[in-house]
Amino acid sequence: MSGPLKFRVKHLYKTLLHLGKDYPKGYEFFRSRLHASFLRHKDVEDPAEVEALIAKGEYVVKELEALYMLRKYRTLKKRYYDS
Amino acid sequence: MSGLRVIVGCKRVIDYAVKIRVKPDKTGVITDGVKHSMNPFDEIAVEEAVRMKEKKLASEVIAVSCGPIQCQETLRTAMAMGADKSIHVEVDAATYENLQPLHVAKILSKVAQEEKADIVFTGKQAIDDDCNQTGQMVAALLDWPQATFASKIEKANGELTVTREIDGGLETIKVQVPAVLTADLRLNEPRYATLPNIMKAKKKPMAKKKPADYGVDVGPRQSILKVEDPPVRQAGSKLDSVETLVTKLRDAGLVPS
What we know:
Helix content of chain A is 80%, strand content 0%. Chain A has three helices and no strands. Chain B has a nine-stranded mixed beta sheet, with helices on both faces. Chain B has helices spanning 40-54, 71-81, 93-96, 101-114, 134-142, 195-201, 242-251, and strands at 4-9, 12-14, 36-38, 58-67, 85-90, 119-123, 146-156, 159-166, 169-176, 179-183, 206-209. In chain B, helix 2 crosses helix 6 and helix 4 (101-114) crosses helix 5. Chain B contains seven helices and eleven strands. At the A-B interface, helix 1 and helix 3 of A face loops of B.
């Protein structure tokens, strides 16, 4: 794996690390699991397979953003609104 | 009249997920070493301003924050979400403890005049002091119309049609710009400030000002007598029979005897 694909994987990892700072169970919990899951696929060389894994990672990014948004919305709703 | 200039007020508050602890001497809450973030209602205001810009209704979005040096992080977040530039009005930590909505409103109104803004946008309230005053005071100081608790904003023929959340329903009003708007929870879903955007935001301009630059006296108008925890909810108890329950309820006067 090299070139643009490698850059995208690194970018994905950095994005996920950044998102992990807000993770409810703490940054360290998130980081160790994130690191482990990237390490699990360290030997993947096939570009199509890497592509699929990046897509999976990007899906996780979207899910995390949605999780944080909902969590904030629900907390505020509970705090300030009756219904 | 395309190209409205929007000023957004962003307050740095203790993060919504943090458990608030009161200082032992009851003068305030513990803020040292506690995670802070942008007031969620201000985030909604920033998001709406940025969306107005994306729809070409607004030409420039300026984020403003009053407070200690750490407020610059909040402004960076606002710029990462899409604000064009920001103004940090630095107030030192000691003065900041007594900074009231009136002071912030005076600063915001002066900024609005200086920047020739058409809209001043804030969150409806901050989640730390829950004052819900700043937007209204800005409107009064500038003598502009106000549309508070906005849950929907549309622009038509040089007017803004704003749906407001009021007790038990919605109210739709029309306001002329310049106007003051405050955002309610259901106005939109704020975007997440992504890492590349935070990096890009570091290159966006941030002006550093002092309250004195705007001729605003930030001397305290109020003093905090004491800050206390809310009362703790009393624990319930298990009863072994219906009779005891009825007796208890009667004693408490909750059922007719």
